[in-house]
Design brief:
single chain, mainly alpha, 12 helices
């Protein structure tokens, strides 16, 4: 008798489990798939919009010549923005122009992640300034840029600071906190001859390799008609 009750109870449990499995399977089938969220026309429309957005984004980056900032250390990439022509011209005629590039002084060198992260952040910041016409007539280094530049001064001139002149090794932030002087307080004319603007150096564009227009010749011809 007890065996019959046990078997019947087991059969009832199995039936309930089967019904539960069937119910979950039916619910899964009834649930709409991701591919069924949009109609065929909506999918085509979304693809077109995505293509336009990606195309315009790629064109914008091409017109900015963004790839030149990340590939190599060519200083001419800096004059993609014409406001930098005085700084390229003064650098090219300085002692630093023989041995140092823009990246040697203006980006961190602790590791690749920090280097390219800083370049991306700084490039986006400058782009935002120029697009919104918020740039200064004569650009000035901000706090983070000043810290990077001074760290690179110390990195290149360590032997001079610690063995020959023995000025010690104090970082930019230490100098700011203790009221000391940074490198360019004394060496203000190295390597850019002080603060320069486009008006102060009117002939800078003649010694600067300005990039060619990114607009194709055929399109320039159409626009000129």
């Amino acid at each position: 008798m007890n065996l019959r009750k046990l078997l019947s109870f087991k059969a009832a449990v199995e039936r309930e489990q089967n019904q539960a499995c069937l119910s979950s399977a039916e619910r899964e089938q009834a649930r709409p798939k991701v591919k069924d969220w949009f109609s065929y026309r909506q999918k085509i429309g979304l693809l077109v919009v995505a293509g336009v957005v990606c195309g315009l984004g790629g064109l914008f980056m091409y017109l900015l010549r963004a790839h030149t900032y990340f590939i190599g250390d060519d200083p001419s990439a800096c004059v993609n923005c014409h406001i930098m022509t005085p700084y390229y011209a003064t650098w090219s005629h300085s002692s630093h122009g023989r041995d140092a590039t823009c990246n040697d002084c203006h980006v961190p060198h602790q590791n690749l992640a920090l280097k390219y992260g800083f370049k991306a952040m700084d490039g986006l910041k400058h782009t935002a300034y120029f697009v919104t016409h918020a740039e200064r007539q004569a650009p000035m280094a901000e706090t983070l840029t000043g810290q990077v530049v001074m760290d690179n001064c110390i990195r290149c001139h360590t032997q001079l600071n610690q063995e020959f002149v023995k000025t010690g090794r104090m970082s930019y932030m230490q100098q700011q906190a203790q009221g000391g002087k940074v490198c360019w307080d004394c060496h203000r004319n190295v390597p850019h001859s002080g603060m320069n603007s486009l008006m102060a150096t009117p002939n800078a564009e003649f010694v600067t390799p300005l990039p060619p227009s990114p607009v194709p010749d055929w399109l320039q011809g159409m626009l000129s008609k």
